[in-house]
Amino acid sequence: MKKITVVIAFLVCLISSVFAQESVELKGKVTDENNKSIKNITVTIKGKGETVQTNDSGIYHTVIQEGKQVIKFSAPGYASKTVIIEIVDDTELDIQLEKIQNSKSSRL
User: Fold this and answer.
1) Cβ-count burial of 58 within 10 angstroms (0-12 exposed, 13-18 middle, 19+ buried)?
2) Which residues contact 85 (CB under 8 A, 6 or more apart)?
3) Signal peptide: which range, if any (predicted)?
4) Superfamily, domain 23-96
5) pLDDT tens digit string along 14-49?
6) pLDDT digit string (tens) for 56-90?
7) 9 in helix, strand or coil?
8) 54, 57, 60, 105: which one has the fewest Cβ atoms less than 10 Å from its Cβ?
């Protein structure tokens, strides 16, 4: 009987910790290697099932759950960047992306 009580108490604590995760704000700015804002960068939160894009000033904003998050920043013409971060409160995450250089070589 004592074992059952301990198991039930453990399960109650586990379930309450899962539901206790709070929604927090994630925002930031995406710039290029010259610190210029980049618009229309896609910001994907793995597991969330939705994406947001940066505005004309390179700013993005979304609401996510606290905890470990995998965030991908991508756009045509730029090297994608994936960040793994532990979110514990409202967070500002600024990212710098590198422009992909044209790989075509000129031939004589």
Assistant:
1) buried
2) 68, 69, 71, 91, 93
3) 1-20
4) Carboxypeptidase-like, regulatory domain (2.60.40.1120)
5) 554 555 568 999 999 999 999 999 999 999 999 887
6) 999 999 999 999 999 999 999 999 999 999 999 99
7) helix
8) 105
Amino acid (one-letter) located at 70: V
Tell me the two tokens of residue 79. 């090297």
The sign one gets for the Cα dihedral 30, 31, 36, 38 is negative
Residue with tokens 């910790």: 17
> Which pair of structure tokens corresponds to residue 22?
């709070």
Task: Give the angle 85-65-71 at the CA atoms, nearest 5°.
Answer: 40
Q: Which residues are paired to 28 by β-bridges? A: 60
Q: pLDDT per residue over 89-101, tens digit each?
A: 999 999 999 999 8
Non-local CB neighbours of 60 within 8 Å, separated by 6+ positions = 27, 28, 29, 30, 41, 43, 52, 53, 54
